[in-house]
């Protein structure tokens, strides 16, 4: 089972759009996908379920917030599978592929504060144990999923911050996917993100040394997938090409494929509760957008396979 965190410090760069479409295409190809919406904004959740349905059926006890709340209350949370829902999009999938979802909750924002109160301790030893407990819980739960063989891949859509919830996702992940816009501030952000991930990994692993039984973590960056690309004569406009080259020079791998910018096509999809890649296309632009997403998923699968061989 692959475990991938989709992350960028910046909001509005296309993380959720990339996650939803990657899930859609992988499931269409027959993969069993589990999506976990870790962002309090719940955009991924509302790309697959209506706010009414969420309010009626999921809000009270079927979100990742309920799972984290159990931890804040000092209880052992139920297995993640108890929080999984099956959105309507599955009607459009054939074969054995599926998209399951653990919804987010607007109140997830407060979970960070609650979890932070569990940090610290009477001595350094205790503080380090608590650090591992608070940051490693999701990892433990996802390892439990791996044993049950229900899913081929878990995709976690992260919020645009580096709080405890986000750190849980990174600690739990084996691979990291970074959606980004090719512009100046995003390029700076990727460098910063890369360093923060390395610091977190080092900190966690230093603490693990004290705690027998916890394995060290080694999340690998799969690459940067560029989004909102403006196409001119079949290629990204020159200003964007410049930032793509700059990102490559940061030493972070990048995907050759990209998501082009198309407000009409991308902004309607969440409301239809179906990612763009699964929609019937009405015109040639839509067809181009879909083939570009398919090309990205081809590349994504090839990169995963390559990493697996190493
Ligand atoms: N390739 C794209 N072209 C045009 N608009 C996009 C594209 N990808 C995402 N958007 C729009 O940009 C906004 C932010 O996208 P989203 O995927 O929610 O980003 P994030 O998860 O990083 O905050 C949304 O309104 C979405 O519809
Ligand atoms: Mg998002």
TrEMBL record:
Residues 1-207 form the AAA domain. SUPFAM superfamilies: P-loop containing nucleoside triphosphate hydrolases. InterPro entries: AAA_dom, DNA_Partitioning_ATPase, P-loop_NTPase. This is Chromosome partitioning protein. It comes from Nitrosomonas ureae.
């Amino acid at each position: 089972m692959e475990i991938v965190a989709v992350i960028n410090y910046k909001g509005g760069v296309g993380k959720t759009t990339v996650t939803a479409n990657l899930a859609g295409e992988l499931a269409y190809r027959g993969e069993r996908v589990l999506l976990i919406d870790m962002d309090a904004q719940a955009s991924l959740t509302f790309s697959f379920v209506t706010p009414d349905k969420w309010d009626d059926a999921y809000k009270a006890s079927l979100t990742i917030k309920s799972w984290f709340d159990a931890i804040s209350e000092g209880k052992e949370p139920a297995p993640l599978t108890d929080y999984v829902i099956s959105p309507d999009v599955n009607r459009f999938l054939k074969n054995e592929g599926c998209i399951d979802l653990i919804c987010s909750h607007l109140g997830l924002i407060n979970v960070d504060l609650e979890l932070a109160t569990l940090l610290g301790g009477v001595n350094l030893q205790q503080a380090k144990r608590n650090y591992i407990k608070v940051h490693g819980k999701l990892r433990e739960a996802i390892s439990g999923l791996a044993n049950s063989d229900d899913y081929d891949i878990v995709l976690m859509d992260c919020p645009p911050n580096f709080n405890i919830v986000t750190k849980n996702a990174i600690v739990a992940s084996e691979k990291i996917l970074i959606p980004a816009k090719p512009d100046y501030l995003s390029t700076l952000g990727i460098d910063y993100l890369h360093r923060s991930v390395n610091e977190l990994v080092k900190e966690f692993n230093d603490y693990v040394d004290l705690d027998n039984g916890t394995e060290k973590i080694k999340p690998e960056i799969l690459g940067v997938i560029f989004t909102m690309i403006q196409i001119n004569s079949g290629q990204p406009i020159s200003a964007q090409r410049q930032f793509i080259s700059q990102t490559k020079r940061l030493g972070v791998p990048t995907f050759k494929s990209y998501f082009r910018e198309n407000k009409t096509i991308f902004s309607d999809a969440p409301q239809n509760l179906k990612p763009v890649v699964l929609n019937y296309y009405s015109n040639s632009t839509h067809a181009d957008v879909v083939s570009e997403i398919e090309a990205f998923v081809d590349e994504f699968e090839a990169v995963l396979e390559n990493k697996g061989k190493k």
